[in-house]
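pinging the channel bc i need a second pair of eyes. not urgent but kinda urgent?? the chain im working w is below, pasted from the shared doc
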Amino acid sequence: MTVHRKVTSLCVFCGANTGTRAVYRDGAAALGRALAANGTELVYGGGRAGMMGAVSDAAIRGGGKVTGVIPEFLVEKELAHPEATEMIVVPDMHTRKKIMFERSEAFCVLPGGVGTLEETFEVVTWRQLHRHNKPIVLLNIDGYWSHLVGLMDRIIEEGFMHKGNNALVTVVDRPEDVIGAIEAELAAPKPPVVFKV
């Protein structure tokens, strides 16, 4: 019998822009509302703009706990969310990612740019190398991440990752499926993927 395991904190990687279509911002807001309703703390990059603002605003309005982690140079640009439950100001980007990792049980990737990709590939790489086994969910809003999923399949096909390494991430299409996917994996963790050279 599988025991239900509630996710208490979720790190969300996403862009400081909202993209060209409202569906992305709407999806971010839907996730923020779902986190608040579930009692799951949002851990994120601390910004008030773009997708970061959409997910955090919705979580705050829903009464959820929101923890931002932001480097000093972005605070100086007045980009920190003034209504976050907690705002952790750090000296640099590396420290930001370390604290976000430590404060979270799982990760969700919303549409974003190269910064979002960089954060995502780091936690995926750490999982591949058995440095953690926290769930990582790609929220593929309107197919935004489909090319990335295809690229990972191609990397495996071409022999640069081992077969089965596509299990490093779980892909869902709807914001309302994120928490369920994570909690299912927390209750029944995936076995580590092949790690060898």
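so The domain at 9-185 is CATH 3.40.50.450 (Rossmann fold). and The longest helix spans residues 22-38. — does that match what u expected or am i reading it wrong
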